């Protein structure tokens, strides 16, 4: 690694000059009189979660032996220096949860050893550089919650080692490229909150290793294949809602025994939740529109069920009391009680409760709710 680390020392001192905020005074020892590097060369710079602010100095690109750079969860602004692309030994790059702006430097494609590339939750703009397709060792690519625009480049299909991919909550559009079908090792694919169009990408059906698939809130259309659940048998999370899918809900979704969270609300899918869903024992969260099969109440592990804005049919049976883990948004319930009460009183002003009396009633509702066991409350709801 060489004997002279003066280059690294100078690079770190210049980096410190770009730091205008150091609330925890962690860089106070970085000065001319102190030799920063006791070892040969700097191979890791871990400054994550240290409440630092300022800009990232281009001098960081002079740390030519750097393999790990973590500046996450700070308050760095400005742009990502092109010079970061000089770090050809870099394997881990994390600048997430900052206020970085501008475009993703194309020079980062020179960091050919990168395995983890995380720029999640910044203010990055522009398109996704096609040069990222050169980073063929990438296993983790997180670019979600930024302001990226345009289409996903076809070159991303070259990332055949990718395991976790997140472009969620950007302004991306167009079709999801077919090249994702080459992600044979992928575990998590998250693309929610964009403007993707076209049909459900057929290439996704080839990704049998997928455990987390989230394409919520896009502009996707068309039908889902009836064998959906048989082709993606390892899913734990499936979020398809807030799209424009048509046709029937695939009954084979009930064959995904590992499924824990399912969201298919606000789409144009027809039909009801199949009764066979009663055998999906690991299901904890369910968000949908439609009628409720009786078998659903056998899901003892269900912890959340969203029935809002529903046009349900069928009965809610007393068996719902068996789902002891399900939670209720208490504040919402009380707000609804107040809203309904006031609206009813508008039409009968002579019978309107005084404010003090209304308060007493609400307090009574709250006390009854908290002092009553949840299962008993559910049983009473079913009896009324």
From TrEMBL:
Kindly give the SUPFAM superfamilies that the UniProt entry links to this protein: L domain-like
Q: Which UniProt keywords apply?
A: Glycoprotein, Leucine-rich repeat, Membrane, Repeat, Signal, Transmembrane, Transmembrane helix
The protein's matches in Gene3D superfamilies, at most eight in alphabetical order, are given as: Ribonuclease Inhibitor
Q: List cellular component terms (GO).
A: membrane
Leucine-rich repeat-containing N-terminal plant-type domain segment(s): 6-43
Q: Does the keyword NADP apply?
A: no
| Coiled-coil residue windows | none
Compartments where located: Membrane
Q: Does the keyword Transmembrane apply?
A: yes
Q: How does it sit in the membrane?
A: Single-pass type I membrane protein
Q: PANTHER family, per this entry?
A: DI-GLUCOSE BINDING PROTEIN WITH LEUCINE-RICH REPEAT DOMAIN-CONTAINING PROTEIN, LEUCINE-RICH REPEAT RECEPTOR-LIKE PROTEIN KINASE PEPR1
Tell me its family: Belongs to the RLP family.
Protein name per UniProt: Leucine-rich repeat-containing N-terminal plant-type domain-containing protein
Q: Which organism is it from?
A: Thlaspi arvense
